[in-house]
Amino acid sequence: MDYKVIARDILENVGGAENVKDVSHCFTRLRLVLRDNSKANKDVVEKLEGVIQVVISGGQFQVVIGSKVDKVYEEFLPLVNVAEGNDIAEEKGSLGNTILQTISKIFTPLVPAIAAAGLIKGLLAVASRLGWVDVENSTYIIMNAASNIIFYYMPIFLAYTTAKTLKCNKVIAMVIGGLLCHPTIDAMIQDVGTASTIFGLPVIKKAFTIGESTKVFAYTESVIPIILAVIVLYFLEKFLKKVIPDMLQIILVPGISLIVMVPVALVVVGPAGIYVGYA
After folding, report:
1. What is the mean pLDDT of residues 164-169?
2. Residue 127 CB burial class (10 angstroms; 0-12, 13-18, ≥19)
3. How far is CA 140 from CA 68, 117, 181, in A?
4. For the chain, which terminus, N or C, has the lower number of CB atoms within 10 Å?
């Protein structure tokens, strides 16, 4: 299967490069936003090699390819000269479709790592149960740690994918995610008996009673807090770029963003995300 030929044939039958406003992909679909959908020949595209189906939904011309979609996507990008990771602009679909597409863009890149972690955990469980490896064995410990990385540092990975989706500073977003996972911050958050502040504002901590057990919330392995934080970062960056001169933006925008977002994450959106998660 020649992915370059598939990409070229798809492009030719959707009106050419000039008709492609944006392109992205999920786990199985090449998602195109076309300037004029009438120029696309759906029936022809569906008959192309490697194409399973074409779905037109939410303002997108979605070419269902399957697990090889990433390879077609890589060949498609140079043909339309669209930068990788571009978000879909001026979405014509409903608000619900837009939200679902955004969620898909945030979580889909993490699916392979989550699947790999699950596979490793399953193999370790089987090996341990059958007595092939002891849980105290260094190999078991190392591989078990590897399988936990995607979950323990979830805020960092989600920070990257959310920032990429929203088109804000990915590195600053990852720094915020790293802050939520930092051992010092984690220990501070879980020490509910000691009051902590940042710039005089209270760092929110909370212990939840679930059944007969009490659980102190932590940001490691959390999902909603970092997504909310990056959404705030997106709007903050837009504002700062409007008021800060271009020649100073390279230093002041990320610097001010981080200074503002640290207390926002620990005082407002982080706790809000945890409460939503436990609701």
Report:
1. 92
2. middle
3. 33, 14, 24
4. C
